[in-house]
Amino acid sequence: MRIAVTIPSLLRDCTGGRVKFELEALTLQEALNQLLLSYPLLRVHLWTETGQVRKHVLLYYNDTNIAWLDDLEIPLQAGDRLTVFQAVSGG
């Protein structure tokens, strides 16, 4: 199943300039794994060294924050989306 992925423009240098693209996967976990395989530069921006999603990053599967999900082995359906939000702060 193909899943639509959107990332913030701040991270487009990690994806060859792309902010919207598709990944092929059967489950949400597989889509997240494929995201890192296809775009390894995203790893440092999205995950900590221990594999946790960084505090300033939100990953949404459709309209649900994946932090609220008990299991990421969700079968993907046509029209599903994975959206990356990254908080920006500073002065």
Describe the structure.
This is MoaD/ThiS family protein. Pfam families: ThiS. InterPro entries: Beta-grasp_dom_sf (IPR012675), Mopterin_synth/thiamin_S_b (IPR016155), Sulfur_Carrier/Prot_Modifier (IPR052045), ThiS/MoaD-like (IPR003749). There is one protein chain. This protein has a single domain, classed as Beta-grasp domain (Ubiquitin-like (UB roll), Roll), CATH 3.10.20. It is built from 2 helices and 5 strands; from the N terminus they run E-E-H-H-E-E-E. A hairpin with a 2-residue loop joins strand 3 and strand 4. The mean pLDDT is 94.
- What does the radius of gyration come to? 13 Å
**Strand residues, percent:** 25-35%
The helix fraction, in percent, is: 10-25%
Domains, number: 1
Helix-strand sequence: EEHHEEE
Question: For the record, what is the CATH homologous superfamily label?
Answer: Beta-grasp domain
The assigned structural class equals alpha+beta
The CATH topology corresponds to Ubiquitin-like (UB roll)
**Order of neighbouring strands in the sheet with most strands:** 2-1-5-3-4
Largest sheet: 5 strands, mixed
The number of strands is 5
Mean pLDDT equals 94
- Poorly predicted runs of 5 or more residues: none
CATH top level assignment: Alpha Beta
Termini gap: 42 Å
Oligomer: single chain
Please render the helix and strand layout as text.
Elements: E1 2-6, E2 20-24, H1 28-38, H2 43-46, E3 57-61, E4 64-65, E5 81-86
Parallel strand pairs: 1-5
Antiparallel strand pairs: 1-2, 3-4, 3-5
InterPro entries: Beta-grasp_dom_sf, Mopterin_synth/thiamin_S_b, Sulfur_Carrier/Prot_Modifier, ThiS/MoaD-like
Protein name: MoaD/ThiS family protein
Organism: Paenibacillus planticolens
